[in-house]
Amino acid sequence: MTEIIENDRQSAKEKFILYWGDMGSQWGVNRSVAQIHALLYLSTHPLNAEQISEELGIARSNVSNSLKELVNWRLIQRVPVAGDRREHFVAETDVWEMALLITKGRKQREIDPAIKAIDICVNEAESEPGINPVVRERMRNMQDFLQTADRWHEQMLAIPKSKLATLMKMGDKVLNLLKIGGKKTK
User: Fold this and answer.
1) Helices (H), 30-171
2) Lowest-confidence range among 20-24, 114-118, 150-154, 166-170?
3) Domain count, the chain
């Protein structure tokens, strides 16, 4: 189930899982991880690893590793199922919560280390003799950008989901209000 082949025999659910897997791989997420996430997101009941493996045609060991990664991201969780000793999993189904979890995880894994690395470089550049002032200034510009983006991220996380959704849906209205672009109203 790893190839996206347009045909009428594929269900919308199968296509969704394939496309989610493809998008995940474009975003740097293992395709199997993304497909398992999609399957659990769409599932109306908890699934165990064997069921996931069978439905997606993914090796059981790959499923186990992918489930661990998704649990670490907090996008899925283990749930007990009465009468079954196997681990079962469900996905977060609130798309806003899911987006926030992904954003927080990516920030921790990608942005925070970048901020630390750039801070080190800027600090070293301040005392390094012979460094071109233009290079130093470009480093400071990157540092400032990352710090600003980090503060903005923290501010966005503090906004309640319902208000954040409203803000995003406003689109051009916000830009127009701030007079920085968007459609002009009369």
Assistant:
1) 31-42, 49-56, 60-72, 95-106, 112-127, 133-158, 161-170
2) 166-170
3) 2
